[in-house]
Amino acid sequence: QIQLQQSGPGLVKPSLTLSLTCGISGDSVSSKSAAWNWIRQSPSRGLEWLGRTFYRSKWHNEYALSMNIRITINPDTSNNRLSLQLSSVTPEDTAVYYCARGTGNSPGQYYFDYWGQGVLVTVSS
Amino acid sequence: QSVLTQPPSVSGAPGQRVTISCTGSSSNIGAGYNVHWYQQFPGTAPKLLIYDNNNRPSGVPDRFSDSKSGTSASLAITGLQAEDEADYYCQSFDSSLSGWVFGGGTKLTVL
Description:
- The complex is a heterodimer of chains A (about 120) and B (about 110).
- Chain A has about 120 residues and is mostly beta strands.
- Chain A has no helices and eleven strands.
- Chain A has strands spanning about 5, 10, 20-25, 35-40, 45-55, 60-65, 70-75, 80-85, 95-105, 110-115, 120-125.
- Chain B has no helices and nine strands.
- The interface of A and B includes residues 65 and 102 of A.
């Protein structure tokens, strides 16, 4: 049974870096068939895919164009988890952040089949 | 403004059939990319409902089905039940954005 357990602070000050982790059980962050994603949800922006990390002979990271400069997703193979760092946050980054497993044979067949419980992150001074 | 457009709300009486539309463009649904659907209850994470052309994860009843034509897709729910009251989201890939996109969500109310 695959489970994703998220952790991290619920409050971040503007201009600082948001950091979250997602622990994986029942699968491996180094899986050669899945990818590990961060997705956020807010009333103003809806559900928004942020980026992913995956292993196919080597590690790959892909980020949403809107996030590219500020986002870093890292796998932690020792602890079987992944992390999200989003720098220079503003109140617009206030959202519920989810990690999710993605699977599919091509980008057009890719979907998110397991989700973490979500963490509400508020950006405020 | 979401890349995929869904009606904000739909409603139906128990036992009825409802459909939820998801309208995209030539860079996502119209390009032939699959559409997937999620169900979300308040305060919980989205749950995969339908994937890859009418496939349902274990435990999802066959009252849920989907279809696609041109730049649009639809989720159909037959034999509506009170427990179906939730938010529903479509998702696809967008080649212009080089990433995965979601609809704005549709709130289903069971009357």
